[in-house]
Design a protein that fits this description.
The complex is a heterodimer of chains A (169) and B (324).
Chain A (H helix, E strand, L loop, with lengths): L1 E10 L4 H11 L3 E8 L9 E10 L4 H10 L3 E8 L3 E9 L6 H9 L4 E9 L7 E9 L2 H18 L2 E5 L5
Antiparallel strand pairs in A: 1-3, 1-4, 2-3, 5-7, 5-8, 6-7
Chain B lengths: L5 H12 L8 E3 L4 E3 L6 H9 L11 H7 L4 E4 L11 H10 L3 E4 L2 H17 L4 E2 L10 H8 L5 E7 L2 H13 L3 H10 L8 H4 L2 H15 L9 E2 L7 H8 L3 E10 L4 E10 L10 E8 L3 E8 L3 H19 L4
Parallel strand pairs in B: 3-4, 4-5, 7-9
Antiparallel strand pairs in B: 1-2, 6-8, 6-10, 8-9, 10-11
Helix pairs in contact in B: 1-12, 3-4, 4-5, 5-10, 7-8
The chains are: A alpha+beta (169), B alpha/beta (324).
Amino acid sequence: MVQVSMKLEMSDTPGQLVRALKPVSDTGGNIIAVIHQREERREKKDIISVQIVVELPEGRLEELLARMRDQGVSIQRLGTQRLLHRRSLIMIGHIMHTDLTDTVDRIDKTGFAEVSELEMIMPAISEPSSARITIRATSAESMDRAVEVLREVAREKDILVIEPLGEES
Amino acid sequence: MIGFGTVGQGIASVLMRKDLGLTITAIADSRSGLMRDDGVDLAGVLERKRGGFVVGDVGISPMDVVKRGEYDLLVEVSPTNIQTAEPAATFIREAISRGKHVVSSNKGPIALHLKELRRAALSHGVQLRYEATVCGAIPIMHVLEEGLRGNSVKSLHGVLNGTSNFILTRMAEEGLTYDQALAEAREMGVAEADPTYDVKGIDAAIKLVILSNTIWETDLRLEDVVVTGIDQITPDAIRLSEDEDATIRLIAEAIPERGICRVTPRLIPRNHPLVVNGTLNAITLTTDLAGALTFVGKGAGSIETASAVIGDILHIKERYARGA
């Protein structure tokens, strides 16, 4: 699933908002939030502006936008958040000196998960560092696969990975 | 009673304090034995042991007591040997073959030979109980066989080793390093001189094997458990986990339908029921009917372990003793 937020403009006529949002369910999506702002500049008197957040199956966005335009909706802004799932893990070991860039890359290049945060504490050169790594992934299953990639990298590099309890899908 | 260490002495002192209708007719430590059909003088034996002497006659071996003693039930509380399970396994087999019930606190024979010993007990019409082998005072075996009748257990999660939980608790509370917390644990008698079994997760893995084999009647061995200890945990790692409102604990986990059986340090929310402090043990069972249940209690200690042994003895006495 992809999370999309968009700002829409449409004519301020009865039933227009319902018509504008119907394509969301038609394309297999879910509406997560609708924010209706009334404090708009009044120069466009008969136009209303609405911000929505929807969850959509991969690859259906273009179709949704086309269908919305067919309903007379003007799309003002579009933002996608592809990586809905988040999981933090702890790593202990020689994280820096075992090529941290490579560790992060191996997850990033999966295509379905990315390292979104990394906080590291390095006490002294010869001592093991500790880090909290946050991974974002497109689905719960991709998260499990991403964590498996991290486990594998950690095995190679002799890094201890501490996984959260009970977050596996 | 075979074995007169911490557990054996705990049982003796409880029996002196409370009239539970039990008589110890024979007692042995590793080097001596004493047989008195009308009951051993427990105060005298305790005094001798605490004075650094053997409990009985050096001419009588523990095996003599098991083979020739006059008793209905063998209390096997001798030291654990996790490689061979001996000599405890031999004592238990011998007692069973004589038609005697057995109550043991010994992880060795139960982790290594549960299936065989159960079969032997069944064919001789005697009971074999071992509540004290896991989670000290928590009556988890009684819960499993009585309170949760009709349930299917789906998964098990537990803090099964008090020493490592104490160390992780102190690291989190005071920001101590692993070595500092271990030194403190040793000073307080919470960790042994050689803490390897505790801090490497082996003791917890042995208990996980016993629990799994009891619940699911499997034939799991120690080698089947994925084990990572706590000796690499840094105070920094705990601090980083606290930013997520979590902490780090050594968790034993068994989920048979997903092939999971492991003892590993885990990131766990601080308000999770398994986050217990100090040497406490905790165990969560997830079942199909009752849902999730968590039990918390003391995992070790002379009197606490005696509580589990005595519970087993009385269970057998009330249900199976001849003439009961």
